[in-house]
Amino acid sequence: MKALLDTDEMVFNGPELGCVLCLTGLPGGNNKLHDRSPYGNTGAITGATWTRLPSGLWVLSFDGIDDYVDVGNPASFDIYQLSIEAWVRPPTAIADNWYNLAYHADRLKLRAADSANQIMYFAIKQNSAWKALSWTYTDATVWYHVVGTFDGVTLRLYVNGVERDTLESAGTVDTPTGIFKVGSKAVGPTAGEQRIGLFRYYNQALIASEILSHFSREKHLFGVW
Questions:
Q1: Model-level pTM greater than 0.85?
Q2: Calpha distance 84→150 (Å, rounded)
């Protein structure tokens, strides 16, 4: 019986139920980041490079200037109950810089700030107004498991398996107006390197026990205990 999750399982096993984008990935596909969901939402890598962690897991490194992954604007992303999940080691270099883990134009944001602000941030847009959650972290040199969910009524932000912020905001999410990007710089001066791993997007709101299970089974891959 296995005590730890094999890193190969993260790449080759089937994605979680409801996943519309599952970018665990392996290097070697030129500039392509292949989606393991049933929808085939392959991303195009611009500038970002592969880094292998001591655990053997491969993650993408973004330079804080112009690196990102373009996933387009597929119909499978026009969803109204959702979860967005990623492991991130945030940038540390420059103050007042926001860096997207994910951004879908005029619809959804999942962000990490630099070491001066040290904020995890999740927002959706409803009726042209952003509804946002945030949580301040204490160490910009370690990995965090970040999940934002919306079930049609409540937004929730989880970090390392724990619910950190919540907001009641019943309604629908605005229709996306542009491409979905992973890892793009949002605003501010040049940031430090950001790393992102095990990126997933779901057409349902994950519940607290599922999120804690994901964190618990994957944390050793990122040196989190």
A1: yes
A2: 9
Tokens 């927002």, residue? Answer: 123
Give the integer Cα–Cα distance in Å for 57 and 34. Answer: 16
| DSSP-derived 3-state class of residue 12 | helix
DSSP letter assigned to residue 22: E
- At residue 118, φ and ψ (nearest 5 deg) are 50, 60
Grouping H, G, I as helix, E, B as strand and the rest as coil, residue 210 is helix
66 is written with which tokens? Answer: 């112009």
Q: Which domains does the chain have, with CATH numbers?
A: 46-222 (2.60.120.200)
Sign of CA dihedral 103, 130, 140, 114: positive
Collapsing DSSP to helix, strand or coil, 214 comes out as helix
The Cα–Cα gap between 26 and 60 comes to: 10
pLDDT in tens, 145-197: 999 999 999 999 999 999 999 999 999 999 999 999 999 887 777 767 889 99
